[in-house]
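Bug report

Summary: structure tokens for Peptide methionine sulfoxide reductase MsrA differ between web form and batch submission.
Environment: batch mode, default settings.
Steps: 1) Submit the sequence below via batch. 2) Compare with the web form result.

Sequence submitted:
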Amino acid sequence: MKSVIYLAGGCFWGIQGYFDLLKGSIKSSVGYANSKVKNPSYELVCSGSSGAVEALELYYDDSILSLDEILRRFFSIIDPFALNYQGNDIGEQYRSGIYTQDSATLEFVLEFVAKYQISLKQKIVTEVMLLENFYPAESYHQKYLQKNPNGYCHIDISGALREI
């Protein structure tokens, strides 16, 4: 069955590059989630005035790739304790987050994060909330690491090929 989830973890190029390699990933696009401004540009998002976060819109086949596996993999490639940065990417637009379109999925994600938090000493600061909006990023951002294999990325996308 086709499902969708929105993931933010620093620069969206690496998140997309990683999740595109997973079996069960159907379609993805990068863009700006939860913006206070309609259809923001990259420049506006980088200015911090839109409130948007760089995010991945991931459509997946949940009979092949479960939400549980997506979340486990997501937390393995981001720093869930970093507030408004990931790697060298600094700013509110680089905060980490998980956004859903429905309350049932939101509840699943909240329970996952609560269970994940139990064994940790630091507090997870990854946002978990319903998606307010999503605007696709400019075309040059889409599949950026496929077009630019040596492009900057704080995520080791080859990790997608390993079992977790």
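Above is the batch result. After comparison, the two runs are identical; trailing whitespace caused the diff. The mean pLDDT is 95. The longest helix spans residues 103-118.
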